[in-house]
Amino acid sequence: MKHLWIAAAVSGLLAGCSAEKQQEPANTISQQQAPNVMLNTDVPAPVAKKVPFEMTAHGINRTDNYYWMRDDSRTNKEILGHLEAENAYVESVLSPLKETREKLYEELVSRIEKDDSTVPAFYNGYWYYTSYSGENEYPIYLRKPTLDSEAEVLLDANVMSEGHDYFSIGDYSVSENNELLAYSQDTLSRRIYTAYVKNLKTGEKLDDVLEGISGTILWANDNTHLFYVKKDPQTLLGYQVYRHKLGTPQADDVLVYEETDETFYTFIGKSKDADEIYIYHSNTEKTGVTIIDANNPTQAPEIFLPIKDGQEYSLEKLGDEYYVLTNIDAKNFKVMKAPAETKNDLSTWEEVVPHRSDVFVQSIEVLKNHLVVKEKENGMLRLVVHNIETGEQKVLPTQDPIYGAYFNANTQVDTNVLRIYYSSLTTPGSILDVNLDTFETKVMKQTRVSDTFDSNEYASERVMIDARDGTQIPVSLVYKKARFKKDGTNPLYQYAYGSYGSTVEPTFRSSWVSLLDRGFVVAIAHIRGGQMLGREWYEDGKMENKVNTFTDFIDVSKGLVAQNYADKDRVFAMGGSAGGLLMGAIVNMEPSLYRGVSAHVPFVDVVTTMSDPSIPLTTGEYTEWGNPASKAEFEYMLSYSPYDQVEAKAYPNMLVTTGLHDSQVQYFEPMKWVAKLREYKTDDNLLLFQTNMEAGHGGASGRFKRFESTALEYAFVMHLADVEL
C-alpha distances in angstroms, 592 versus 283, 487, 663, 683? Predict the structure, then answer.
């Protein structure tokens, strides 16, 4: 059997990227100080009015002077005016860095291939892919019956986006007869989509319009019925699954399923063989799947396995059997096989991959004769290929000690070729096709960085840092060899997320090259609250253990300084969303440790938000943060809530960003936080707050435009680090 190392296959493409160039002298950053650019710090910062709003719960009184900043309609002129004033303040203060920002932006977007396309994926007789060209911000969605055929344009998002400040295609789905296209779009960035249907033969748009949906639309196999999830317009929770019949008004659609438990998220999907449509029921502590027969869409749906507290599972269909990834009697998950006819009877299930206390089973993929298991041991990823017929199992070899890999566009069951996305901190993202019988690996595409990029000039490593309770925290590091010397003189840019069990994998980010080339060490802190070290790692960073997430991050910063990876005076931290909560917590707990902190769309007003079920997504988070109806949970959240814990002291330089139409962390959370920080902080450090008035949680929608915010942040960080541009 021929085993090809994945990284070796990828490195063949990288070898040609190296160009002759002079080696930069090692560790020159501290000597090559940036020009002494003086910012316009004498510009007065916006000062928000104070309107006391009293709140009482469990005998505890709180006064929120900035509660008035909440406007769900986003039309209040005073609020919009204050946001615009904050934006103007950012531009005034940073005006001396205008050329720096422009140069960084051009540098960042230069790493985007202007004429680019995805690797085609085959489904139901056609190859599907997307393509970008020139200066266009958005993709064109295409298909062709053979790879040599002329492409058929399904959707051109560049044309569709005209007249909109924000535009996003949520999903598109082609009917089984290949004649009809259903697609959804969002023009506000609230992640509430409207779906349309187009006749692919004539190009005619049908009268069918489905409004207020979550984005995903799925065809039944009769080419007549569509399934979608309806969202609550206030909470933005998807909670109703409807069946729509072509040619009828949306008001006549049939309600197939309604979620009455507001702690659940509801999604839909379809099996690879197209025989079943799935309704996914997702709570942070329990999950379930309801099955719809795609060939008989009007029949009543059937639950796969009843939902129980603490019980989670997901499934992959293979013929008349299901491979089930579950935590039933298996904290770190195991894989079971369930017969279709007795799927509700656990006694008939067969164990395929047993539970191991030291191995976390993250996800699975099933293809004809192979089960591929993505698992981690001590946080180190491996892909294990199980031959279903012989029982033989082998680990897919790689050379990178730390890397990320994801199953990618595996649209067919009857194949022995697995497609994965592969990347490391020094290896740009690559699409690989792996023959599971021979392990021969073909590089279908690797993301281009630049004509001069050479991955061999960079190094990555994993270190373990002791937390204050003795727990060892894994940290992934990357730096440029010629600019790094382990003597405590390099600036550090540290990133983490640390919530929902989400694992930040050590994968390549082209934007980080701008930092690495200027001598930064970039670190991903795999703190508790994620699942890098398994399910227990997540549980040790949620609910009553949430503070571990924050202290882990702080201890990693201190540890990297102590081990001479970082200059103690140039430590920078960045996080977004729940990672923005992390940023808010660390600046309250250990403000003097950081030279600068970037908090993007930060979830910082924890108690007030979690106490109001009308705020989008709140109820679905009760099992992550806590339910304020419980006195103990209320008090614990209050003890770390960044907004509530702001006090009179010196804070680090801070850059805070948000989007007016954010559907996950409402704009008024960071807005209030910044106003309160301005009121209390005793220092003269920068406090900058920028709002994208057209975007939401994910920022700008265009592939180039989104880097404007990155350029802003990097200019902020590099100025504070006194780094040569």
Answer: 38, 21, 33, 11
Contact 175, 183 (CB under 8 A): no
Asked if residue 120 lies in contact with residue 419, where contact means CB atoms within 8 angstroms, the answer is no
What's the Cα-to-Cα distance from 302 to each of 257, 288, 297, rounded to whole Å? 11, 11, 12
Q: Which two tokens stand for residue 490?
A: 């390099």
Low-confidence ranges of the chain (pLDDT < 50): 1-35
- Cα separation of 476 and 571, whole Å? 16
* Cα–Cα distance for residue pair 653/599, rounded to 1 Å: 11
Please state the three-class secondary structure of 561-618 as a single string.
Answer: HHCCCCCCCCEEEEEECHHHHHHHHHHHHCHHHCCEEEEECCCCCHHHHHCCCCCCCC
Q: Give CA–CA dist 216/269, Å, rounded.
A: 8
Count of other CB atoms within 10 angstroms of residue 685? 17
Q: Which of 175, 577, 598, 709 is catalytic?
A: 577
High-pLDDT (> 70) share of the chain, %: 94
Contact in structure between 515 and 522 (CB atoms under 8 Å): yes
Contact 237, 228 (CB under 8 A): no
pLDDT of residue 695: 67
Please tell me which residue in 244, 370, 697, 719 is annotated as part of the active site.
697
Comparing CA positions, the residue from 234, 87, 78 lying closest to residue 670 is 87
- Amino acid at residue number 615: I
**What residue ranges in 232-285 does DSSP mark as E strands?**
238-245, 254-258, 265-270, 276-283
- Report the SS3 class of residue 348: helix
Q: Share the mean pLDDT of the chain.
A: 92
Amino acid at 395: V
CA 25, 572, 112, 454 torsion-angle sign = positive
Main-chain phi, psi angles of 223, to 5 degrees:
65, 15
Structure tokens at 357: 């206390």
Per-domain boundaries in the chain: 118-357
- Work out the angle between the directed axes of helices 98-109 and 707-721 (0-180°, nearest 10): 130
Cα 141 to Cα 198: distance, rounded to the nearest angstrom: 14
697 tagged catalytic:
yes
Q: Is 209 helix (H, G, I), strand (E, B) or coil?
A: strand
Contact 664, 670 (CB under 8 A): no
Task: Specify the pairing of strand 521-525 against strand 492-495.
Answer: parallel
Nearest partner of 430 among 16, 10, 116, judged by Cα: 10
d(CA 230, CA 214): 6
Query: pLDDT digit string (tens) for 643-701?
Result: 999 999 999 999 999 999 887 789 999 999 999 999 999 999 999 999 998 866 655 55
244 catalytic residue (yes or no): no
Catalytic residue among 281, 662, 709, 719: 662
**Among this protein's residues, is 345 annotated catalytic?**
no
pLDDT of residue 211: 97
Give the whole-angstrom CA distance, residue 702 versus residue 454: 27
Distance spanning both ends of the chain, measured CA to CA: 50
Strands 596-600 and 653-659: parallel
CATH 3.40.50.1000 fits 118-357, yes or no: no
Sign, CA torsion 670/674/675/676: positive
Q: How far is CA 134 from the centre of its chain?
A: 27
User: Quick one: which of 670, 674, 676 has its CA closest to 687?
Assistant: 674
pLDDT of residue 698: 56
